[in-house]
Amino acid sequence: MNDATGGESEILRQIDALVTEERDLREQNEHRLTPQERSRMRELEASLDQCWDLLRRRRALREYGQDPDAAHPRLADEARRFRK
């Protein structure tokens, strides 16, 4: 496995872990989240935005013959702007 694919595998594992935590938090509390849990949900959403953004940018770089390792995570607010 080359580094580019390995990097994406790690990002996908992180996405999976974040989605699992988000789902577990929602299911555990049946949508009645405490302020701390709501804060954690916002953190999870921001982290997911960053991961998906990084994964898309890595794939775009590879598609155009560039080094996917040149992509670095953006700040959460910046990643969120590029979500759509």
Percentage of β-strand residues: under 5%
Largest beta-sheet characterization = none
| Shape summary | elongated
Please tell me how large the radius of gyration is.
Answer: 15 Å
State the distance separating the first and last CA atoms: 30 Å
Oligomer: single chain
Work out the number of β strands.
0
Total helices: the number is 3
Q: Average the pLDDT over all residues and give the rounded result.
A: 87
What portion of residues is helical? over 70%
> Which blocks of ≥5 consecutive residues have pLDDT under 50?
none
Give the ordered list of helices and strands: HHH
Category by helix and strand content: mainly alpha
Describe this structure in words.
The chain is mainly alpha-helical and 84 residues long. The protein has three helices and no strands. The longest helix has 29 residues, at 35-63. It is elongated and about 45 Å long.
List keywords for this structure.
84 residues, mainly alpha, single chain, 3 helices
Report a brief summary of the structure:
This protein has 84 residues and is mainly α. The protein has helices spanning 3-29, 35-63, 76-81.
Write the layout of secondary structure elements.
Layout: H1 3-29, H2 35-63, H3 76-81
Helix pairs in contact: 1-2
